[in-house]
Specification:
It is built from 8 helices and 4 strands. Strand 1 (about 5-10) and strand 2 (about 15-20) form a beta hairpin. It has 3 domains: about 1-45, no CATH class; about 45-135, no CATH class; about 135-230, no CATH class. By secondary structure, the chain is mainly α. The radius of gyration is 22 Å and the shape is globular. This is Phage protein. InterPro entries: HNHc_6.
Amino acid sequence: MWLPAFVRNFRGSQLVIQLEQSVSLERLRTMYNGNLSRILVKIEFVDPRKARPKQRALFFALIGDIWNWSGQPVEELKEYFYIQYAIRTAGGMISLADDTKNTVSDANKLLEIVIDFMFDYRVPFKDGYELLPKGETYYMYLCCKHRKCAICGRHADIHHLETIGMGGNRTHVDHTKRHVMALCRSHHREIEQIGARNFGYKYHVPVTGIKLDVETLRKIHVAGNYEEKE
């Protein structure tokens, strides 16, 4: 049962909401076998922002990169990814036209599907690379997962933003507790030479990094001490 509501106040981890319509207690009693002492709800924060032109530009730039790689017509590629979006969102519709009703979050889901595809099939980023959302956590995660430099797209090492220390044995470190980003050797050297802050300003990327789970770290062959995580 889905009901629209408005948030009236935040109180720490508690939300005060106002429903647009009254709740049918009889329906709730049926759902919970008459026991209304513990009712579970699902909260979804609705994105009020309309999908942006730069998201449309990025989508078609990436589609162009896939067309250069595969030779598949652009309209067919567009239809394919729209269908993938519908599958991933249980029938959701997507449009990036000027009059779209889709949100920034909707468009980001579509872009994640396209970027996933390109990383998985090793499609070369060309026209779309400069437009990639390098500030997005999901993009940073994919760069680490596929060992692609977040700056230039070349093969990358996993750069630790917190210094492990000279002589430190990385296989004895729990890497799930450390912030990382994927950088090729050239950009790895540069961030160490000019410092994280200057590096972030130069390439317009966040240098706070992300944390990876044990499964991802093992897949990308980052050895460490994960006994507590087993």
